[in-house]
Design brief:
The chain is mainly beta. The protein is built from no helices and six strands.
Length: about 90
């Protein structure tokens, strides 16, 4: 499904001589970025790599059209790779 585009309504006026002229009304659909609705990034410091588990997806948000949008995990990154003592695990 495309989220952006146009919707056009066309009406035709026709007189008694059969002359026709169109009147057109066009909506332009431009989806606004919903980033303003996103929860803030988060994190915490832990003392053991085993405690750096997937925190689970953040809460669903609503886009500019009122639809529910769910976050999808796209990966994780260890710095250094692999973390063996201390380091940082972040999003890919």
């Amino acid at each position: 499904m495309d989220c952006e585009g146009t919707v056009t309504y066309t009406y035709t006026y026709t007189d008694c001589e059969g002359n026709s002229h169109d009147w057109v009304y066009t909506y332009t659909i431009e989806v606004e970025d919903f980033a303003g609705n996103m929860p803030a990034d988060a994190g915490r410091t832990v003392s053991c790599i085993a405690a750096a588990v997937d925190p689970g997806a953040p809460a669903d948000i609503t886009d500019g059209c009122g639809r529910t949008v769910s976050a999808v995990l796209v990966g994780s990154v260890e710095t250094p790779n692999p973390v063996t003592c201390e380091g940082k695990i972040g999003r890919a």
